[in-house]
Specification:
mainly beta; Jelly Rolls
Length: 263
């Protein structure tokens, strides 16, 4: 009888003890990629110029804002540029706040008026050829609106890539989103949700305006390009993040990431 009582007491005490479990992992946190002070962590590649040659001080930081400026350009001459964050990512949310300012650089193409972009799942800047215009990537196209008429932003463009939408492979270069038109020099908040090769979603001011799946290498709209980099049909599960210089001044005051990779 005494043995049975001791056994019951032991079982009761054990039942009151918390189960041994692993410590819960910290939830992912938003981390700034742009520190508001300088271009630390970023690398510049401008068409016709070597990697890290920030020709004309195109990309600069002033008053806590990353600016894309052309005051040193006599003629833009298709010198498209990109500023790459140093680390590639796979699954993440990216938040960017941008606005267009001033006048387009002399020699800029008409389509490039108030035009920039966020490139995701891109090739590395080291792998770009000297005269390559755009990285092989998925572009979240940023557009400013005219005084009259509609012009959406956070559109999709595909330099050297394709995507799938509604079970159909899209092979044309650009697709408009359902966003509103944002005119003047107002700041616009865009979020890009990237889930490896399964889903990419564009969000403007809290509204989902476009989504698609299976980003992959394919098609044109990028030249010249190393054929060992552009292997058509390759699904894009990860890649670089970069911001564009396409001849119209643009400013970025926030670039931050929520890394979902668990690393």
């Amino acid at each position: 009888m005494r043995y049975i009582l001791l056994l019951l007491l032991t079982l009761a005490v054990g039942a009151c003890q918390p189960a041994a479990t692993d410590e819960p992992s910290e939830p992912p946190q938003w981390v700034p990629l742009f520190n508001g002070q300088d271009l630390s962590g970023w690398r510049v590649k401008i068409r016709g110029h070597a990697l890290d040659d920030n020709y004309g001080n195109t990309f600069r930081v002033e008053e806590g804002v990353m600016k894309v400026s052309y005051d040193a350009y006599e003629d833009f001459s298709a010198q498209y540029g990109h500023i790459f964050y140093e680390k590639p990512y796979s699954s993440y949310h990216l938040r960017v706040e941008y606005r267009f300012t001033g006048e387009q650089a002399p020699g800029g193409e008409g389509w490039a008026w108030r035009n920039s972009g966020i490139m995701v799942h891109g090739q590395s800047p080291e792998s770009m050829l000297l005269d390559q215009d755009f990285p092989v990537s998925i572009e979240v196209q940023l557009l400013g609106g005219p005084e009259e008429g509609e012009r959406s932003t956070a559109n999709l463009c595909t330099p050297g890539t394709h995507v799938v939408m509604d079970d159909t492979l899209l092979v044309h270069h650009c697709l408009n989103s359902s966003s509103e038109t944002y005119r003047g020099d107002q700041w616009v908040a865009v979020e890009v949700q990237v889930y490896a090769d399964s889903l990419i979603r564009h969000i403007v001011e809290g509204d989902t305006v476009l989504e698609y799946t299976q980003p992959q290498i394919g098609g044109g709209s990028v030249a010249p390009v190393d054929s060992t980099v552009k292997v058509d049909g390759t699904l894009l599960r990860s890649g670089t993040i970069s911001l564009q210089s396409e001849s119209h001044p643009v400013e970025f005051r926030k670039v931050e990431i929520l890394d979902l990779s668990g690393k």
